[in-house]
Amino acid sequence: MRVLVLLLLLMSSAQAKLDIQHWTTPEGAKVFFAQTKGLPILDIQLNFDAAASRDGDQFGLASLTSSLLGTATQYHNEEQIINTFESVGAQFSNSSLKDMSIVSLRTLTRQPILKKSLHRLLLIKQCLLITLMRIQK
User: Fold this and answer.
1) Looking at the domain assignment, is residue 9 inside a domain?
2) Nearest 10 degrees: Cα torsion 117, 119, 124, 126
3) What are phi and psi of 78, to 5 degrees?
4) Which of 9, 74, 73 is nearest to 82 (CA)?
5) 3-state DSSP call for residue 61?
6) Domain containing 70 — which CATH number?
7) Coil vs helix vs strand at 16
């Protein structure tokens, strides 16, 4: 029992305080940024107010849109997108919840890898925005 209490005390005192910076872009997007020096990894998560609660009479629209993200862009098919992310060890994922849709990317921060991963993510994001604008019409 003493070992457990000591272990808990050591664990609680060893927790580092994470400095989370936040700001709002001129376009109104909220940004939260936390930097750590330990791993050369960048995690990006884009949360959109475009989910099942916004489907209206078009039930399943958010889920369908989310499932199609990453399957094609204007210039690349699904296999090319997957191969790009896999070739640099990046992880791309997306999901749709009741109150938000999420697009995530985890990639290494070495410049050539980061550039390639971000470029492909931006193409996917561009397709998402075009789709959302078409849906709203």
Assistant:
1) no
2) 150
3) -60, -40
4) 73
5) helix
6) 3.30.830.10
7) coil
Q: Is residue 94 part of a domain?
A: yes
In the numeric block, the tokens 């050539």 are attached to 112
pLDDT in tens, 75-103: 788 888 888 889 999 998 888 888 888 88
Contacts of 101 (CB under 8 A, 6+ apart): 47, 48, 50, 51, 62, 65, 66, 94, 95
Range of the domain at 128: 21-136
- Is residue 82 domain-resident? yes
Rounded to whole angstroms, the Cα distance separating 55 from 50 reads 8
Please tell me the pTM assigned to this model: 0.70
Q: Which two tokens stand for residue 27?
A: 């376009």
Spatial separation of the C-alpha atoms in residues 47 and 28, rounded to whole Å:
13
